[in-house]
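Continuing the series of single-chain predictions for the mutant panel. This is the parent chain; the variants come on the following pages.
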Amino acid sequence: MTTPPITDSTELLNQAKALAEAGKPDEAIAGYTAVVNDKDTPEKTRAEALLRRAAINGQKENRDGEIADYSLLLAIKEAPDSLRGLAYLGRAAAHSAKGDPKREIADYTALLALDGLPASLRVEALLNRAAAYGRVGGERKLEAADYSELIRMNSVPAELKTRAYFSRAGIYGLDGDSANEVADYTKVIETPGVSAELKSRALFNRALARERSGDAEGEAADYAALLAFKETPPEFLANALFHRGTARWARNQRKLAYADFDKLLALPDVSEELKTSLAPYLEIRLHSLVLDNPVSAPAEKAAALLGRATALRQTDTETAAADSAADLRSLGALEGDAEAVRAAKTKAAAEFKEFAEIFAAKAEENPAEEAMRLGLEAAAAGDLESAAARFATITETSGISPELKAHGWFNYAVAQWKLGDHQKSRASFTELLAIAKALPLQRARAYLYRGYIHLKEGSKQRAVSDFAKVLEFEEIPADMRAKTHYLRGVAHGRLGETAEQTADLSQFLETRGTPVVWRGKALLNKGAASRRDGDTKSALSDFSRVVDLNGASSNQKVKALVNRAVIYAQEGGAKREIADFERVVALAEKDDLWVLGKIAKGVQFSAPRTAAFDKLAALSDNAALGDVAATFPLIYADVARDGAYADTRKSAVKLLDPVKERALLEEIANDAEADESVRKAAAAKLAE
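Parent structure:
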């Protein structure tokens, strides 16, 4: 006897449920379909079957089938509100999955209109509808209203309410309402138990909001809190350092900005996006080091000015265009006829035209703006005299803003500096410093220029005073601070203030990234100061650092080795003295003839004396030395006449010209007190 088929809809529904629970979705769908198609199925049961079939269609990502089932359910008038609510919720999610936020919003709106809607569904609907409004765009008020309604509800889980505060803060930010944006992020930050990621994100966003509102103190506090928060995810640490650094950079707090950038680069796994964004700032620092190096060649400076001008335009700061224009202007005034300089000037002249337009727009309103534009154009073209005349016009114009007046004086002073009229340049920088609204960095540069002019003029105490003023500006770039310490150290040295000289040079040497050439000079000066004070230990350390300094010039290493050898001689270190003099001879070039002569004449050891004379002879045979070779006879004559040792006097005699130096050779040949081998060498030379 066969089992009769099940015809009761309730039994069919239960059987389909069991199949679904057993992981047989296709069989379950067939069962739910049988329930739906049975004309005798009660409407409530049909509605439940449709709800369950829709859920399985959703799991199978059959969105059209899912939406159709929810729609059939909602068309059943007898369907209870509890099922209708779930249908609206499910259909809204399906519309979202299909990328249809408008239909999604309509379903959440219908859901929220149901009577007796459980609080949990209302919270979910409000959160999701708000998010859908955000995807539609242009509905920020409605989006914010949903978050606000959720926030007002009682018994909402703290986590969901925190999410609502965070999202609403973002809307306030888009609307430019920084006060409410900050207030909502504060609610997130102060919520107990908030996740580390959400708290970090809120701190970061609140810092950005405070930056936009001009609250620099609050911004700094948020970044500090974020960086001190032990649970801050690495990506937020990197972003915080980048944004704080760029904000500081835009405010001319360059030292602090680059400190943040260096910390960022030290983090592990920094994103390529951040590295790309950071690149222009790092380029600017590298180019600035070249430009601040007084021994940089014109071609190097031309490349650095053009490179920095390009990098400045990539920083997205308010002053980027003007700063870039200033560098192009400086390039136009750069001296030098090398091909690299000419090519850079040509490119700069073309690029400068776009910056001239920035000032041209204001020309009709203010003639001084036109003078500024024309002055910048003239400077970019290398016509410094015309540029100075234009800038002078600005300084003489009344009724203009203090800021424009300050720019006029600064540009006029720089133009006079480049024209070589240091007296006028110094006076112009003094005029600039009398303007209260001059930019801090502008004032710092004015003191630096003026201090350098004082130093060149021999006003050492005034130079020290101006350099001290530069160092009072806390946020000057690190390279500028280092340069100022170096120059003030030089000034102190010329005043005989050894302790102050050593302190400044030490401060310079502690700064990372300073040019190697400057480091070599600073160590030589510091070593010489220590030697004068009798501190031979410190002097030896400094001279040794020069010898081991990668990139130091051979001339610097020669000076360091000579000084070190002299100290070894005073302390009885013969082997080390000989070794250093031999290294001097090996390193010596055409600029070091003086030291070769001194070694040949006065060093008490035969090996370095002989090596020095061999090097002198080799250099004298080098036609490429040109006029420099004329100095060799003077060295040979000096050693031949006054050398303390027979072997060097004999070598010098052999290198003398018998025609030009005949009188000297006769004197040596007839000198009864001279060594016999030296007299014979002189006689042989006369016989040639």
